[in-house]
Amino acid sequence: MSKFIVVEGLIGVGKTSLCRILQRERNAHLVLEPAENNPFLANFYSDPDRFAFPAQMFYLASRCQQQSRLFQSQLFSNLFVSDYLFAKDQLFAEQTLTGEELRLYYQFSHLLSQNIAKPEFVLFLDAPTEVVCSRIAKRGIEAEQVIERDYLNSLRQRYYDLWRNYTEAPVYVLDTTLIDYIDSDADRAFILDMIDGWLNNEPIPGSPEAFSGECSSQVPLFNIQSAAAAGVIG
To answer: CB count, 10 Å around CB of 174?
Structure first.
């Protein structure tokens, strides 16, 4: 039977890179958010009041189309991995839409979300805002360079609000500040082992517990450096 996992996180935190590693190392079928194809995205970042609704509706339709195909095809692959959770679409809508536009969004979202696949778990990657900003600057996507820190801080808080109320699957939170799973073989191997452990219902030592909603700080308490200090990894 196939399995489905989701890697979530703020813009630029490294979720898609981890998904591609899972594709390469675990032969996972990749489901990527259709961000680059959204014709309203660049305009939204520069003029959110005007372009929020068409940008959000484009995402809703695109995500629903992807997730519906995933729901229908799960028997044909052992592992699916996505760099977004369908439920987070509403998270963005509630941040950018108001009034009649938000009410119309809710109507369409409810109609389109009936056949959405549920993940085995969600891995939420986080990092302090200054780290996220530096990663956004480094990857150099023009439309993202105008994203403000306040927007990222607000988005992070909305993610944690979502996790506190999300009951479809466990959510694991990981601070990626000191993790280099792209260039470090040790970090990459540890994260892959951690994911394998969750998939097999046998968490390895050092794996974070499922998010309980009790984390009071903006940045998660678990990271690979703390695991190394405890002797979990070397």
So the answer is: 23
How far apart (Å, rounded) are the C-alpha atoms in residues 59 and 231? Answer: 43
Choose among 204, 150, 130, 149: nearest CA to 172.
204
pLDDT band at 56 (very low <50, low <70, confident <90, very high): very high
- Identify whether 234 is part of a domain: no
53: domain CATH number is 3.40.50.300
Nearest to 174 by CA among 221, 122, 231: 221
Q: Domain range spanning residue 42?
A: 3-229
pTM (2 d.p.):
0.81
CB-based contact 204:197 (threshold 8 Å): yes
* Domain count across the chain: 1
Question: Is 220 a residue whose pLDDT tops 80?
Answer: no
In terms of Cβ atoms closer than 10 Å to its own Cβ (0-12, 13-18, 19+), residue 63 is buried
* Residue 156 φ/ψ, nearest 5 degrees: -60, -45
Size (the chain), residues: 234
